[in-house]
């Protein structure tokens, strides 16, 4: 592995921050503790922190670049980080994701060194210690919780476009909570100014161009959030719009499916809460609290063109 810049590090880690707080020290310490057979740099893109995040990053040895908060975009800001990075392999990490061990970075890059078709790798996520039962269940039931490595490869643009929408979505899955991108592919397929869902949009374009994506569970981070019903509604509204735009996929296309999916999602979550978390009588309440707004968000996304503009703006905030 060589750096695209003579004398530069072979790999880079780019972290996006905004008032990351004192817990950011754990992220930085875990990143700098990585054991690799190559040199790597750490770049922090900060969008106007006032809590000492930038100073903490510099003190730990990171290169800090200021990004005006008004210009932040999930895709364009990551493009900026990649343009500043020296490595051929560039890991992307959010500020509150803590690498689980000292092999987080190497485990991702090994996949790309061994196969030139691999454009990007993303890793496993584990719930934070002390997380609520619902947060733990949501993390452990996500596609980024599995213990089996997955290769996502369609075999060519023609074959990919002929696949059913749900299968194309599965092949395009990518998650920038913790990921690594091959620079040469990024130069061909940048994230672009995208807003929400820059990782899935990039994954779709990469797979459509005959590249591979890999889910590597050996590369793991600790990352979870405590979310409320309003966030779940907005998040799934944004996700539903993205699925329609990218794949023509509408998981909740009508009221009958809304009722059915809400009941099924509630039952699944309730079962997991009862069996995995032993939450007893609280299980149905916790399950419904998440299932109802999530499925409603997906349903409203299919009707966005008929929604009042004010409601669309309300639903589009905060994700």
From TrEMBL:
Pfam families (alphabetical): Glycos_transf_2 (PF00535)
Family, as annotated: Belongs to the glycosyltransferase 2 family.
SUPFAM superfamilies given in the database record: Nucleotide-diphospho-sugar transferases
GO-annotated molecular function: glycosyltransferase activity
Lineage, opening ranks: Bacteria, Bacillati, Actinomycetota, Rubrobacteria, Rubrobacterales
Keyword Glycosyltransferase assigned: yes
Pathway: Cell wall biogenesis; cell wall polysaccharide biosynthesis
InterPro entries per the UniProt record, alphabetical: Glyco_trans_2-like, Nucleotide-diphossugar_trans
CDD domains, A to Z: Glyco_tranf_GTA_type (cd00761)
Protein name in UniProt: Rhamnosyltransferase
Domain Glycosyltransferase 2-like, first and last residues per copy: 12-123
Keyword terms, alphabetized: Glycosyltransferase, Transferase
């Amino acid at each position: 592995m060589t750096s695209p810049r003579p004398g530069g590090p072979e790999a880079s880690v780019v972290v996006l921050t905004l008032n990351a707080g004192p817990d950011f020290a754990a992220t930085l310490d875990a990143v700098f503790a990585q054991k690799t057979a190559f040199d790597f740099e750490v770049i922090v893109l900060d969008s106007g922190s006032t809590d000492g995040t930038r100073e903490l990053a510099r003190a730990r040895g990171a290169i800090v670049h200021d990004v005006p908060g008004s210009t932040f975009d999930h895709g364009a800001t990551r493009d900026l980080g990649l343009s500043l990075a020296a490595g051929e392999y560039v890991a992307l990490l959010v500020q509150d994701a803590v690498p689980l061990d000292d092999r987080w970075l190497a485990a991702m890059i090994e996949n790309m060194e061994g196969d030139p078709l691999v454009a990007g790798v993303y890793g496993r996520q584990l719930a934070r210690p002390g997380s609520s039962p619902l947060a733990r269940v949501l993390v452990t039931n996500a596609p980024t919780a599995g213990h089996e490595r997955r290769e996502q490869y369609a075999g060519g643009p023609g074959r990919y476009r002929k696949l059913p929408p749900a299968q194309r979505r599965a092949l395009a899955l990518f998650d920038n909570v913790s990921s690594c991108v091959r620079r040469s592919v990024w130069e061909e397929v940048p994230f672009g100014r995208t807003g929400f869902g820059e990782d899935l949009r990039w994954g779709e374009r990469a797979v459509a161009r005959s590249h591979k994506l890999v889910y590597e569970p050996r590369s793991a981070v600790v990352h979870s959030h405590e979310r409320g019903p309003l966030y779940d509604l907005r998040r799934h509204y944004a996700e539903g719009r993205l699925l329609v735009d990218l794949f023509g996929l509408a998981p909740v296309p009508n009221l009958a499916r809304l009722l059915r999916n809400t009941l099924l999602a509630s039952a699944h979550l309730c079962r997991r809460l009862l069996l995995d978390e032993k939450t007893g009588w609280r299980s149905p309440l916790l399950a419904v609290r998440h299932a109802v707004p999530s499925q409603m968000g997906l349903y409203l996304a299919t009707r966005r063109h008929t929604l009042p503009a004010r409601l669309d703006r309300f639903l589009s905030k905060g994700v």
